[in-house]
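Below is how a single chain appears once it has passed through the pipeline. First comes the sequence as given, then the structure the pipeline wrote out for it. We keep one example in the README because the format questions we get most often are answered faster by looking than by reading.
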Amino acid sequence: MTRRIAAWESLWARRALPAAEAAVEWSRLWFVVAASMSVWGGRRGRTAAAAGLTSLGVAQLATNTVGKKLTSRSRPPKEWNRGGGDRPDSSSFPSGHTAAAVAFTAGVAPTWPKAAAACAVPAGMAALARVHSGAHYPTDVAAGVAVGLSAAVLVRIGARRMKRQVRRDEQH
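Resulting structure:
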């Protein structure tokens, strides 16, 4: 499956996927989206941006300091690399790019579903691009999705608990 995806030669695969992958490099796209939501989205935008960025941070922490250290999976063969894609020396499992993209999108979703739907498009494209570029296997990306979703859920639970605690403290 990885070899088949990496071999896609359509115009869409050659142009759109590398563009999506470049946009999410170093989480640039998510910081721009969060800033835009904060400036133009009012209170809901600021809340969604904070949840998205916090989820992204938790996902990056989980993948880069825990997940990749516990596993030592090699990347797909170099000949599958499409040239321009990021190919770090770290473990292939799980995909940090995918975890960050999914975490941001899922973190935004409860507060601003329409914004999250818009974020889901580049997030999905970036995840697919990680396989197309030869940087990851599909299972690396699937694990990144799981980490991203888990991070967003943990952040949501943590935020709710903090709100409850603040309310209790204010009452006493």
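The CA atoms of residues 68 and 90 lie 7 Å apart.

See the next section for the split statistics.
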